[in-house]
Amino acid sequence: QVQLVESGGGWVQPGGSLRLSCAASGSPFSIYRMGWYRQAPGEEREFAATISRTGGPTYYLDSVKGRFTISRDKAENVVYLQMNSLKPEDTAVYYCRLLPTGGGEYWGPGTQVTVSS
After folding, report:
1. Distance from the Cα of residue 59 to its chain's centroid
2. What is the pLDDT of residues 23-74, one digit of tens each?
3. What pLDDT is attached to residue 74?
4. Residues near 18 by Cβ (< 8 Å), separated by ≥ 6?
5. Which of 25, 46, 111, 117 is such that its CA lies 20 to 30 A from the CA of 6?
6. How many CB atoms lie within 10 A of CB 115?
7. Is pLDDT larger for residue 92 or for residue 26?
8. CB neighbours of 77 closer than 8 A, spacing ≥ 6?
9. Nearest alpha carbon to residue 94 among 38, 44, 43, 42
10. In what order do the strands lie in the sheet with 68-73?
11. Which residues are 21's β-sheet partners?
12. How far is CA 99 from CA 8, 47, 50, 66, 110, in A?
């Protein structure tokens, strides 16, 4: 069993920055991909960014390209999401997702990001 714990969410004014972290722990596992998804109130959960086990390639939702950067600390099984130039429409619960090489998926409990003045 794999556990994911997100941190780094909070409130920020438009134009501000936040850095989310997701730490993976638990039974021995090999990571295929890790990523971030988000769900705004009343909306479906959507993909935001993903990164391979080697640290690349990375993929982003069009609306966050140039503002968000996903990265990995492979030694610590941690994935980060640096979010700059935040907009009110980025307000959502952000979830970490891990795809092991053996199949299946794991999700974290989520961390709230609120962008407002």
Report:
1. 12
2. 998 876 788 899 999 999 999 999 999 998 887 789 999 999 999 999 998 7
3. 75
4. 8, 9, 10, 12, 83, 86, 113
5. 117
6. 19
7. 92
8. 23, 24, 25, 31
9. 38
10. 2-7, 18-26, 78-83, 68-73
11. 7, 80
12. 22, 14, 10, 25, 16
